[in-house]
User: What shape does this take?
Amino acid sequence: MSSYQELVNQAKALMAQAEDVRKQELANVIADIKGKMKEFGITAADLGISGGSRKARAAKAPMVVKYRGPNGEVWGGGLGRKPDWVNALGADIEKYRV
Assistant: This one.
């Protein structure tokens, strides 16, 4: 019967081996996709992908300003921590609504 440490070492070795195989398969898949894109004249824009990065980034919508502070600060009133200038105003925030 194997000891716990032997099994842990075997698991680590298998995970490393699995990662190597994944990288090889990934390289083949990417090459296949690039080949098909070239063959059919498909661009990243056709797929709705911006070029340059493999990680897709969601387009961030511009913030809608709902409040403007006494010194020109802006806040969208969204979730999360309120800006310090809003906290300093207390319950009076509605008079600063845009």
About this structure: Helices lie at 4-40, 84-89. The longest helix spans residues 4-40. The beta strands are 67-68, 74-75.
